[in-house]
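In response to the reviewer comment on reproducibility (Comment 2.3), we provide here a single inverse folding case reported in full, input and output, so that an independent group could reproduce the run without further information from us. The structure tokens appear first.
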């Protein structure tokens, strides 16, 4: 946020504004983790039947903190925090996991970065809409693909996998 404030102000942002940005950031770090409905139960049902992987993007320390505070970390075989989620990033993940794309299923709320890159590589993907999705991640959800599933909630995936 400080970098953006500096850029949009043409490097004239005041120390008072920077202090306010830091205060907002610290407040955000103190917010409790809110899990989507059905996530713990779904992970528990899949645990032991599949290798579960978190593939997320964002700030490394923030994503690690959120995962740890969620209480869900123990379900995952691997945690991948990416700076971007493009085809090349998923290719690296597949290689690291020694997983063929056709044996990979991505569950995500972003058609743009969770679903399309995985489908383009020959993987499988299920979209779970979420009421809060970054504007730059929003994209038409009327997607037609043989490896694509549209869900209303995460626990609906269980009827496909169990």
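Designed residues, in position order:
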């Amino acid at each position: 946020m400080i970098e953006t404030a500096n850029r949009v102000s043409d490097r004239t942002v005041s120390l008072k504004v920077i202090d306010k940005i830091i205060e907002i950031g610290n407040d955000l770090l103190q917010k409790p983790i809110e899990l989507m409905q059905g996530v713990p139960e779904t992970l528990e049902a899949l645990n032991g039947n599949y290798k579960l992987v978190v593939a997320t993007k964002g700030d490394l320390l923030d994503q690690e903190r959120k995962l740890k505070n969620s209480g869900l970390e123990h379900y995952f075989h691997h945690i991948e925090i990416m700076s971007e989620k493009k085809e090349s990033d998923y290719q690296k993940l597949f290689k690291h996991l020694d997983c063929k794309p056709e044996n990979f299923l991505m569950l995500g709320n972003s058609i743009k970065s969770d679903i399309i890159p995985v489908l383009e590589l020959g993987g499988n993907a299920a979209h779970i809409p979420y009421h809060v999705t970054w504007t730059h991640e929003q994209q038409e959800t009327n997607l037609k693909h043989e490896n694509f599933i549209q869900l209303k909630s995460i626990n609906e995936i269980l009827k496909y996998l169990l």
